[in-house]
Design brief:
341 residues; alpha+beta; Thiol Ester Dehydrase, Chain A; 6-stranded antiparallel β-sheet; 16 strands; 29% helix; 31% strand
Length: 341
């Protein structure tokens, strides 16, 4: 079979798009929103941008670090700008910028910049390598591309850090931190775990019949927040950040999706929830889909940060709990270092 002719390059502006939405519920106007709906909208913008560039169907491959420290309130007008910033053979990295309109100044205030990677798919559901390359000519295009290159290098370093600690055994004295040790009560990591199971409906599927990444992220955020609230005995908790998520498997409406969430790291005001996702298929197989990491803030009824009173009971007899704690601590310090000027 003759290979298709190479496609001509396309400019970033050809597929760049903006979506704006009045967020949340009218009845909850002025209260802080959870992260899930914002993540869902980010997936929509990323997918639309990639599909415009590829001129065909795409699926979500990964979400990188998403910081949501700036609150979004129910009733806020938010704007999301998406543009292709980096290309692989069939993959496209989309730079997403989120803005919130301030009612007093009537200005759009920048909230965060993050990246989602989409993969172009052909008619058989395989990666489509015949997509247009990215034209980079102007100083602005070069700046966008250079940011993406630096971000990709950071993600590669993050992945190496994760892999290096995966098979290691850690001692309690090298893992423990005062933030966790100086609490009033303690739960073992297993005691923090919750498991939820569901099937998705056809309304949650894309053109290929697989579940939208945004719908998965919306559900994962709900599960992570519930796990955190149960641990802290406090309903006033909200996601501050979602760490890198790579979707290893397509998810279908025929799959039973199982999520197990557990608290793996505790600091003074925040904790990290790790979510492990498995799929049960109709043929009886059970396969791993992906992991996710959510940093959740504890606060009080008037919106002020509230110290966590519950810690993790770590033990040498639970090497898995020690490893998860150390990995989460590594993730925390990695991102702190990335934020340093």
């Amino acid at each position: 079979m003759t290979a298709p002719a190479p496609r001509p390059p396309k400019r970033m502006a050809a597929s760049a798009m903006t979506l704006s939405e009045i967020a949340g519920e009218e009845s909850l106007q002025g209260t802080r929103m959870q992260a899930g709906p914002i993540l869902d909208l980010m997936d929509v913008v990323g997918g639309r941008t990639a599909a415009l560039h590829a001129e065909g169907p795409v699926v979500t491959l990964s979400f990188d670090r998403v910081d949501l420290a700036e609150p979004v309130l129910h009733g806020d007008l938010i704007r999301l700008d998406g543009r292709i910033s980096y290309m692989g053979r069939s993959s496209m990295m989309i730079e997403l910028e989120v803005f919130r309109q301030d009612l007093m100044t009537r200005e759009d205030l920048p909230m965060q910049r993050s990246y989602v990677t989409m993969v172009a798919i052909d008619g058989q559901g395989r990666p489509n390598r015949n997509i247009p390359p990215l034209a980079i000519d102007t100083p602005e295009e070069r700046a966008v591309h250079d940011r993406a290159v630096r971000h990709k290098a950071s993600m590669d370093a993050w992945q190496r850090m994760q892999e290096e600690s995966r098979g290691k055994t850690f001692r309690l004295d090298e893992v423990q931190e005062p933030f966790n040790a100086d609490k009033r009560e303690f739960l073992t990591p297993d005691e923090t775990a919750i498991t939820v199971r569901r099937v998705f409906l056809p309304r949650n599927t894309n053109l290929l019949g697989t579940i939208f990444g945004g719908d998965l992220l919306l559900w994962m955020d709900r599960v992570a927040t519930y796990c955190a609230r149960r641990f802290a005995r406090n309903r006033n908790m909200v996601t501050l950040a979602m760490n890198r998520i790579v979707f290893e498997q397509p998810i279908f409406t025929t799959d039973l999706v199982e999520m197990t969430a557990r608290v793996v790291y505790v600091r003074h005001y925040t904790l990290e929830v790790e979510i492990d996702v498995w799929l049960s298929r109709r043929d009886g197989s059970r396969i791993h889909s992906h992991n996710g990491y959510f940093t959740v803030l504890n606060y009080d009824e008037i919106g002020l940060k509230r110290p966590l009173l519950t810690g993790l009971k770590l033990s040498e007899s639970d090497p898995d709990g020690l490893r998860r704690f150390q990995q989460a601590k590594n993730r925390y310090h990695f991102w702190k270092q990335q934020q340093s000027p």
